[in-house]
Specification:
single chain, 191 residues, 5-stranded parallel β-sheet, 8 helices, 5 strands, 36% helix
Length: 191
Amino acid sequence: MVFASSCSTEEPGLKDAFKGDFLIGTAMNANHIFGKDEKAQSFIAKHFNSITAENAMKWERIHPEPGRYEFALPDSTVAFAARHDMTVIGHCLVWHSQTPGWVFRDSLGNPLTRDALLERMEDHISTVVGHYRGQVKGWDVINEAVDEDGTLRKTKWLEIIGEDYIQKAFEFAHEADPDAILYYNDWGAEG
């Protein structure tokens, strides 16, 4: 493992060693973005050419309440990337975790219908992706929809909308930014 404090300023950055081959990416959090961890910030700027906001673009942070979006931290992430000529990958639009409970309920606390949840999903995706259209190269549209046993994870998305929630999320993201690369992201499904 290489630590930020052990890097020489004279050696080339990791991103430079693979320039033209592929991007070298990392996740950034608020401490990195706002320079509270200066060594990490300079290390990231030197060695990486692709960044992802660790949590800032997840539903609970960027859209914590109905009708309220918090773009300050993700905007700062995108601005950091622009200053350092980096690619931004947005993470993540639809996930079973870090999604507020209100997303799945109406104003009276009742479970949403399929159509109402699809409408809410479309509004969220079009607002977030639309806000970053042309600034974010790609999006993790769906995160961890497959369970460890290979079946679709039992989530509110699956329960209320059905299996096509995955397809619908990709359609909404493509409509919001037809030039963005769209990804399915997973962790722990290799077994």
